[in-house]
């Protein structure tokens, strides 16, 4: 399928050159960069390199950049990362009004990369591309296994890396959007970590009982990992985003069952009821959603992060309009300094970055609809800064996990 | 339940085209550990193929195959792609196997593993420390595969993604016969509309009713395709496919290839006789066929005759000759010398480019493909022989890698640009 087929191409006797477009690699994981090379155009020619994606839910996404060929008629878009390339005269950006989410992680995203004559900014379907290639972006590396999990009333999906194992594992929690979002887990498995994507808001048990999950639901998920024959029970981490971070921080500080090797927390907060359930946290959040700053005079309980005993990576965006993540992070830092466990904290604060810090090269969504809210939520962040934050934080998060889950510890906390 | 930690093994990219390089890295090993990197492939015919290299981890427990040396195994030295090109059938396999993928729409799967110690056998009896899977594809995303059956001409057309139009290639294999698609598929992944032509069934070289018109028609199918640039169609041939290319480039009044890539072809051709008659005649020269101590057939002397050869001085298009110096099936170098002399004498030397590869055999294929020195060959529909193709694995693999780069550059020069060689149709 391709838009070019529908325009009835007749014979086209181009004078002498056919523009050569190549993208490498043509099949990659979504967190891998690709290089775009244009050759055989006229020297000094103005070109637009354009990428297009039709998402699972039938929305069109595009990005483009303007280039000028060198004297050999070539353009080498070095490290073209689909969202931004700081080349003179050009800026890549995504135009997005919806969230790009892939629910089926076993098939790739198919992106069409085309090159057009001139510096175009719109109306791409009406122009004839000089050349086009198809690029596949995968969420799962070959050999990764996807295993739905329903034991012990869990609603989850386990991703196992290829190989005999045993592997360290990550308990993966998304945010208040609910549903079972698998693609971060499938990517983690592609990097050698067993990963359990856990649904805790719209899971079967919540739906059938009408009750939100309490802490024991998460501890059950942890125990499932701990006892799995292909997982090293002493090397389990937790990774949360947004509301998932709230749960992660709580478990890291208070759970007697979980012995986390380390925790990764994106865009979240430690401000919660101590013994409360997910429901209370959400209600607390909903009550305060019109407030963008934490008022210390309010009746809220601040988790004691001085109790955390494992290394903690906190990732926050300074332009987060959704959670008071930055303020919360500063408070956590203060607490840990006071308690003497500050050496466990790694804090990454990104300027011009909003709330939804996802795996890199995802289109940045400045605003979108969010479940249960009537108005459009503003997520915040400027595209370039946000995109860089995704790329940088992902890389650092993977390094952090590798160090703590694969590394050889000098002193053991077992 | 162990506190054992698995080494971190990675292959990047995990999915690649068959001619792309990858980087194999191992981390998180104890320092100075001897280990074996192993690759395993299960073919469509259910045969296991393997390759392996012996390494020692460095002070921080890592090894990068593209930077460190293999100290033993099926390949040695600094060989980033050794785990692919040194692949061979596992011990106990049937004799004379050749690895050729029929279904090019799915990838070749290789399991790359780390084993403790320097092993040379018994890989299946031991659990590896770590394993990953890597995919190698002939078809880039967006390449279309189209079955062709026009009159009697049979084959498969591969079209690159994009609006086109594209330069075209008629792609032909040798007298072994059958429909072999994978080279045309990878050529389409590089931007050429490539037509893999089927012209005989295995074993029918001496009996098929085959005339030159068949190939001229096939060439025109490419030339006349709506997504092909008609004056930018070349020919790519190996072995007998190269011979057909020589014929079309020198004798045909119907087709005018833009350029030819010819690997290890001969130039024997008797006018007025069909291909079957000529092949039949040649095979009757049994005294010229040599059989070595392992019962392998060496055919190179069948093609040494200077009688009844094509008039190569009539060639009017650029030709790239790729020759394996250790080709035991066709005396490729002697024939190329002859062609060179003839063309120079006719003032056409500027059209010829030739590359000789020392230590390379007859089957010079896509890079990182295993080397086949001897494989089973159907001489007739009932008679199977072991054919000696020649070549030594390391120089043959170097030849595959180097020639492919040069071939792609050559095709790009002649079919994508070169305004100075505009020919008038």
From TrEMBL, chain A:
Domain Acyl-CoA thioester hydrolase/bile acid-CoA amino acid N-acetyltransferase as annotated: residue spans: 31-151
Gene Ontology biological process terms from the UniProt entry: acyl-CoA metabolic process; fatty acid metabolic process
Gene3D superfamilies for the chain: Acyl-CoA thioester hydrolase/BAAT N-terminal domain, alpha/beta hydrolase
UniProt feature coiled coil, ranges: none
Sequence intervals crossing the membrane: none
Matches recorded under SUPFAM superfamilies: alpha/beta-Hydrolases
Residues in BAAT/Acyl-CoA thioester hydrolase C-terminal domain copies: 216-406
Active site: 242, 320, 355
Domain of life: Eukaryota
GO MF annotation: an example: fatty acyl-CoA hydrolase activity
Similarity-based family: Belongs to the C/M/P thioester hydrolase family.
PANTHER family: ACYL-COA THIOESTERASE 17-RELATED, ACYL-COENZYME A THIOESTERASE-RELATED
Designated name of the protein: Acyl-CoA thioesterase 19
């Amino acid at each position: 399928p391709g838009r070019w087929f529908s325009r009835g191409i007749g014979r086209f006797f181009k004078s002498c050159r056919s523009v050569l477009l190549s993208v490498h690699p043509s099949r990659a994981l979504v967190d891998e960069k690709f290089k775009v090379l244009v050759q055989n155009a006229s020297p000094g020619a103005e070109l637009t390199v354009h990428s297009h994606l039709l998402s699972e839910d039938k929305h069109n996404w595009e990005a483009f950049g303007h280039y000028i060929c060198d004297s050999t008629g070539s353009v080498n878009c070095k490290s073209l990362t689909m969202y931004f390339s700081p080349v003179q005269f050009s800026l890549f950006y995504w135009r997005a009004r919806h969230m790009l989410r892939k629910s089926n992680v076993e098939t790739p995203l198919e992106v069409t990369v085309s090159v057009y004559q001139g510096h175009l900014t719109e109306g791409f379907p009406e122009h004839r591309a000089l050349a086009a290639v198809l690029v596949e972006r995968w969420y799962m590396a070959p050999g990764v296994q996807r295993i739905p999990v329903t034991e012990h009333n869990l609603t989850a999906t386990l991703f196992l890396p290829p190989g005999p194992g045993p592997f360290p594992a990550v308990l993966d929690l998304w945010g208040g959007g609910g549903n079972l979002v698998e693609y971060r887990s499938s990517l983690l498995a592609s990097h050698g970590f067993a990963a359990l994507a856990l649904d805790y808001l719209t899971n079967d048990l919540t739906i059938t009982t009408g009750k939100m999950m309490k802490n024991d639901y998460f501890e059950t998920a942890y125990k499932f990992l701990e006892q799995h024959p292909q997982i090293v029970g002493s090397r389990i981490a937790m990774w949360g985003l947004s509301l998932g971070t709230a749960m992660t921080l709580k478990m890291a500080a208070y759970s007697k069952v979980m012995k986390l090797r380390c925790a990764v927390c994106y865009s979240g907060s430690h401000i919660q009821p101590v013994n409360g359930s997910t429901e209370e946290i959400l209600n607390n959040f909903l009550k305060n959603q019109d407030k963008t700053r934490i008022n210390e005079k309010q009746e809220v309980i601040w988790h004691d992060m001085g109790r955390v005993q494992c290394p903690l990576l906190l990732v926050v965006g300074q332009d987060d309009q959704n959670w008071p993540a930055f303020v919360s992070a500063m408070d956590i830092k203060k607490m840990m300094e006071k308690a003497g466990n500050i050496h466990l904290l790694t804090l990454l604060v990104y300027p011009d970055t909003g709330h939804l810090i996802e795996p890199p090269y995802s289109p940045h969504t400045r605003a979108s609809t969010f479940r249960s809210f009537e108005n459009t939520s503003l997520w915040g962040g400027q595209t370039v800064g946000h995109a860089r934050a995704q790329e940088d934080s992902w890389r650092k998060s993977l390094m952090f996990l590798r160090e703590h889950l694969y590394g050889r510890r000098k002193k053991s906390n077992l | 339940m162990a506190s054992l930690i698995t080494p971190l093994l990675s292959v990047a990219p995990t999915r690649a085209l068959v001619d792309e390089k990858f980087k194999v890295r191992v981390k998180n090993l104890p320092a100075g550990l001897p280990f074996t990197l192993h690759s395993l492939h299960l073919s469509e015919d259910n045969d296991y193929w393997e390759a392996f290299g012996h390494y020692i981890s460095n002070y921080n427990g890592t090894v990068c195959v593209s930077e460190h040396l293999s100290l033993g195994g099926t390949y040695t030295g600094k060989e980033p792609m050794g785990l692919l090109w040194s692949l061979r059938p596992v011990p106990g396999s049937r004799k004379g196997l050749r690895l050729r993928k029929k279904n090019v729409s799915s990838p070749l799967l290789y399991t790359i593993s780390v084993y403790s110690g320097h092993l040379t056998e018994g890989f299946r009896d031991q659990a590896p420390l770590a394993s990953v899977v890597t995919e190698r594809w002939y078809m880039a995303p967006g390449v279309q595969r189209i079955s062709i059956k026009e009159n009697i001409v049979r084959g498969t057309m591969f079209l690159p993604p994009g609006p086109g139009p594209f330069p075209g290639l008629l792609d032909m294999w040798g007298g072994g016969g059958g429909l072999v698609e994978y080279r045309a598929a990878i050529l389409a992944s590089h931007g050429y509309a490539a037509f893999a032509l089927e012209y005989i069934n295995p074993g029918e070289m001496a009996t098929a009713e085959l005339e030159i018109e068949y190939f001229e028609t096939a060439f025109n199918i490419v030339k006349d395709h709506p997504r092909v640039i008609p004056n930018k169609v070349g020919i790519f041939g190996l072995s007998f496919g190269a011979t057909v290319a020589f014929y079309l480039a020198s004798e045909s009044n119907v087709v005018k290839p833009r350029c030819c890539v010819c690997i290890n072809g001969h130039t024997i051709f008797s006018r007025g006789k069909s291909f079957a008659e000529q092949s039949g005649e040649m095979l009757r020269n049994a005294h010229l066929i040599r059989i070595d101590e392992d019962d392998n057939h060496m055919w190179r002397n069948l093609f040494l005759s200077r009688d009844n050869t094509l008039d190569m001085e009539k060639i009017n298009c650029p030709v790239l000759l790729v020759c394996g110096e250790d080709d035991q099936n066709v005396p490729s170098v002697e024939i190329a010398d002859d062609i060179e002399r003839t063309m120079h004498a006719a003032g056409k030397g500027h059209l010829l480019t030739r590359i000789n590869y020392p230590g390379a055999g007859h089957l010079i294929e896509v890079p990182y493909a295993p080397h086949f020195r001897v494989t089973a060959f159907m001489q007739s529909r009932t008679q199977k022989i072991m054919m000696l193709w020649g070549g030594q694995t390391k120089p043959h693999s170097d030849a595959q890698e180097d020639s492919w780069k040069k071939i792609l550059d050559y095709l790009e020069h002649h079919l994508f640009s070169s305004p100075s060689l505009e020919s008038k149709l």
